[in-house]
Structure formats: structure tokens, C-alpha cells
Amino acid sequence: MNATLNTPLFMKSKFEIENSEFLLTKLDYPERLDEMGALRVAAWKEEQGISKDFFSHKLWLDDEDLLAHHWVITHNKVIVAAARMSFHQEYSSVPHANLFDETLLGQFAEGPFASLNRLVVLPGFRGKGFSGVLDQARIQFAQSQGARSIIAQPIASRIKPLEDLGFVYLGKIKPLYQMPERQIYFMIKDLSK
């Protein structure tokens, strides 16, 4: 990726890949929220192991979207990738906290926590490094907001890239009802050091 990213990365940055210009933008709520919800469905609806009933809806939005911070990558003003991050004082308020045993957090049990959620990239734009750009923006933002650690609940293909960013693998979580046949994992990054 030939990317020149401005500082701070998490606000707004232009970059170029394969002679095409892209724009990373941190949105203000509720800017483009419906488009992100539609992107989530478009990006996941053909994947294996998902609930066909759930992904028959037009949008994938939840209550956490109202409180979370959102980033998009656009190409010609169209959203091609998106991600969100939420902040939590207690582990119990992290999305899907009930699917992972809190006692397994060990040294990471104390908040405040940031939580990486809802990373999606349209199939035609995968493999260009957008997940990494969105991860770096969210990590920088979590650091700027004083989070002690960042929780991620990735699918298997995201474990290695997150490990490369300093996340530690802690185990599997129970399947999400939206993706009953896809294994989701639990990872955490310590920001307190």
C-alpha cells in the first residue's frame, strides 16, 4: 500500500492504493450511519456460517451504534470499508461480554476498555490493507482517549494481523446469533504500558 497518512490518523487522511485515491474519515454521529448499516449487510450476506434470516434485513445497526465512534474509508465518496469503536468503564458493558468468561481476562481485567467492532470491507475492496488502516486509526484514538486496553472479537483471518499490532489471543467466544456457524475469538491489547 502506498499510503501517506496525516497525523492524527484517526481524524481524516487521504491515501492512495493502486493509483486510486481513498479517504479515511472519522464520522460525527449520526453521519452516514444507515450507509454503514447497509455496508455491513452487503459485506457479510454471502459469507459462510451466517444467519441468512438476520442478513435478509437491509441494515445491521444496533444500540451500540448510537454511542460508538465510527470510521469509514471512501472511494469516489462511496463507503467501501467501515469500523467502529466503543468505550466502556466496566467489562460487562462491552458488546458480547456475556460470550466470554470475564475471569479469563486476568491482568487485563481493569478498565477503561475500548472495543473494536463491526469492521467490514466490501468484497471487491478486500486485500488492500483497509482493515489495517482502520485498526491503526482506532488504536490511536483509544490511546488518545485514555483507554487502558482494547478488546477485539475477530474471526480467524484477523488473528494474525491483530497479533502484529500487539493484541494477545485469550480464547474463543460463543458464536454470535448473527453468525452461528462462524467461530469468533477474543483478543486484547494492553495500552497501559
From TrEMBL:
Signal peptide: none annotated. Pfam families: Acetyltransf_1. Gene3D superfamilies: 3.40.630.30. It comes from the Bacteria. Residues 23-192 form the N-acetyltransferase domain. This is N-acetyltransferase domain-containing protein. The lineage of its organism: Bacteria, Pseudomonadati, Bacteroidota, Cytophagia, Cytophagales.
